[in-house]
Write a structure and sequence with these properties.
alpha/beta; globular
Length: about 190
Amino acid sequence: MKRKLLIAGDSFAADWKIKYKNTIGWVNMLSYDFEVTNIAQAGVSEYKIYKQLKSVNIDEFDKIIISHTSAYRIPIEEHPIHKGDLLHNNCDIIFSDVEKHLDNSIMKTAYNFYSEIFHADYFVFVNNLIYKEIYNMIPTALHITFFDSFYDNNVLKLENIFLNNKGKSNHLSLKGNNIVFEMIKNKL
């Protein structure tokens, strides 16, 4: 009988097969060894990752992986561009996405916010509070991130793997997904 694994977090941990059927990411590779429940969602803030974890009974799982995100994501109720998208339906706002959609009035407002009044230290502080809440809730989980600079040494930092292996499944090439899969499999 396979051990039960919960995966929560952002797009680096989401199941991209829900939108791109012919793709395989490190999260899909874990199903070879585990019974995987994946509640990660593309583009979500740390706050929504916290809400993901509150939505399940964590005691039902043998192992838990949490992929922490960028502190610069702004939680929103409904994304003006990605609503209805299978992969990004619950997405939050981030500047790199905002810049691509300036033809949308809401995204233009977000651009002005980021450009003129965004207070990076505040968002890092709040993100850190939420991260600490998550970590204290599940300290035995494997905490990972592809946004290294925002997190302490309790989090496995994978940003260099992403930067050197960009691709189309979980933002990684097949080689990058294999590297992450092997690292995480060895940690579990």
